[in-house]
Design brief:
Structural class: mainly alpha
Subcellular location: Cell membrane
Order of helices and strands: HHHHHHHH
Keywords: Cell membrane, Membrane, Transmembrane, Transmembrane helix
Family: Belongs to the UPF0126 family.
Radius of gyration: 17 Å
Shape: globular
Protein name: Putative membrane protein
Membrane topology: Multi-pass membrane protein
Largest sheet: none
Length: 207
């Protein structure tokens, strides 16, 4: 099993857990849990593979990610009531999933020989789209679009660190591990210290 496949599996599990937590907040049934968990788990990777024209899409070639996401949904369905603050769990699970998904998307684009811009965009897409789909379907404000929330920007920083290290001729696996560390460190720091991005504020028209 390749390193990129392991990254895909790991991101599927963590994103599935965050999706199931959101499903518990929406008080869905067990089928709803499985649907939201699977959507969150494979959404970003599906967008990545479609944009990169990778056929078949990773979970069609190997259905195990869907199985793992569904099993995670069942586990959370029976244990979510034990968690004191499910929203906080969602936020932190998303930070770990982001740190795994970004190098997975970045590495896939690098292996296909794409340039820096596409590599960074694929890292961002893989990390962001699963959570975006989850929040839209569950009628929540998407985490990636909350005012000043440094989520996509953390993905961008992580992907840029990977492409920089590859340009410096470091091994790809090392570059992806650094990408994961940078992504999570920046996202965790933002959560712990309340960092935010500047938000546009409209000014009243001049008289």
């Amino acid at each position: 099993m390749s390193f990129l496949t392991l990254l895909d599996y790991a991101s599927v599990l963590v994103f599935a857990a965050s999706g199931a937590m959101v499903a518990s907040r929406a008080q869905l049934d067990i089928v709803g849990f499985a649907f939201i968990a699977c959507l969150t788990a494979v959404g970003g990777g599906t967008v990545r593979d479609l944009l990169l024209d990778r056929h078949p899409v990773f979970w069609v070639a190997d259905p195990m990610p869907i199985v793992l996401a569904a099993l995670m949904a069942v586990l959370v369905f029976f244990t979510a009531h034990l968690v004191e603050s499910r929203l906080r769990w969602v936020v932190w699970l998303d930070s770990f999933a982001l740190a795994i998904a970004v190098p997975a998307g970045t590495g896939a684009a690098i292996e296909l020989g794409h340039g820096p811009v596409i590599v960074v965009l694929m890292g961002m897409a893989t990390g962001a789209f699963g959570g975006l789909m989850r929040d839209v379907v569950c009628n929540e404000v998407p985490l990636v679009l909350k005012q000043g929330e440094p989520y996509v920007s953390c993905a961008m920083i992580g992907a840029m660190s990977a492409i920089t290290l590859v340009w410096m001729e470091l091994p790809l696996n090392i570059a992806l591990l650094v990408c994961a560390a940078v992504t999570w460190a920046s996202r965790a720091s933002a959560l712990l210290w309340g960092w935010s991005l500047p938000v546009y504020k409209s000014r009243p028209p001049r008289q």
